[in-house]
Design brief:
Layout: E1 5-6, H1 24-27, E2 40-41, H2 43-49, E3 51-58, E4 61-67, E5 75-79, E6 86-88, H3 96-103, E7 110-112, H4 122-129, E8 132-136, E9 150-153, E10 157-159, E11 165-168, E12 177-181, H5 184-187, E13 190-194, E14 198-199, E15 206-207, H6 220-230, E16 237-240, E17 246-247, H7 251-267
Parallel strand pairs: 6-7, 7-8, 8-9, 13-16
Antiparallel strand pairs: 1-2, 3-4, 4-5, 5-6, 10-11, 11-12, 12-13, 14-15, 16-17
Helix pairs in contact: 6-7
């Protein structure tokens, strides 16, 4: 019996004797099945060929990403906070070196994930660090490996500790979530957004999509829901889903101006 992992999206599935026949996450219109067909791996195989890069993304924010790049290629963020560390988003590979590095920084109190493309091996991580896993209930159907550690939450916000707040924005996924970190940027605040709000190559802007690889846009109502979700919160920075995919200042205005540009072009 093995917890097989989809090579395309990095999601670890419930234990089975043989690889699952399909990956629902990749068959969804927001993702895609590998052009050469569905392929599976295991955590043991992944450990043999990959390692994790671990380095500071900002003060009290540790990036953890897999090299060579695996699956979607996102990096997780360990937010180090006085009352406990939060792992934002997740990656598939967990090995002893990574676990030791995180233990040395205080471990993980809980894991929170922006959307199903980054569920990856969240149950594996949760078990290793004895951590709860916060997922929005609107994305319950995309959990491929169930666990009693998973706490499905509902509504617009969920308050954690040290002022940290999960915000339901929808958009890219029905349960799309971002994290507000009020202590960041010398108290001006930051958002950790995954790709619910996507930091693009021109760091003066962000963007929003239903599917990034398949270029499916979002409509007016979805953009408005995102804007309304973040409006009550102060933030000067944004930390996105990949290394250095960050907005370093004036981030709230950046979101507003980017949404205005997006809506103008889809309207035209």
């Amino acid at each position: 019996m093995e917890n097989f992992i989809c090579v395309q999206c990095g999601t670890q599935f419930a234990e089975t004797a043989e690889p699952p026949p399909r990956c629902p996450i990749c068959e969804d219109e927001r993702q895609f099945v590998r052009h050469t067909g569905q392929k599976w791996t295991t955590l043991e195989q992944l450990r043999a060929a990959h390692h994790n890069r671990i380095e500071d993304e900002a003060a009290q924010l540790l990036g953890v990403g897999t090299e060579p790049e695996f699956a979607i290629g996102q990096r997780a963020l360990l937010l180090q906070s006085p009352e406990g560390n939060l792992l934002w988003d997740c990656i598939t590979l967990l090995d002893d070196e990574t676990a030791d590095a995180i233990d040395a920084r205080g471990g993980i109190r809980a894991i929170a994930i922006s959307h199903p493309h980054y569920y990856s091996a969240m149950v594996e991580w949760g078990a290793r660090f004895d951590a709860r896993i916060f997922l929005h209930a609107a994305d319950r159907e995309w959990v491929m490996r169930e666990s009693g550690r998973i706490q499905f939450w509902e509504g617009k916000t969920l308050s954690l500790w040290d002022g940290l707040t999960l915000i339901h924005c929808g958009g890219h996924f029905e349960g799309g979530t971002i994290l507000h970190w009020p202590a960041a940027a010398d108290g001006q605040g930051a958002l950790l957004t995954g790709d619910i709000i996507q930091v693009v190559q021109d760091r003066r802007y962000v963007s929003f999509m239903r599917s990034y690889p398949n270029l499916v846009p979002l409509g007016h109502a979805a953009i408005q829901q995102i804007l309304e979700g973040v409006q009550p919160f102060a933030f000067d920075q944004i930390y996105g889903a990949w290394w250095n995919a960050n907005v370093s200042s004036n981030a709230k205005a950046t979101v507003k101006h980017s949404a205005e540009r997006y809506l103008r072009w889809i309207s035209d």
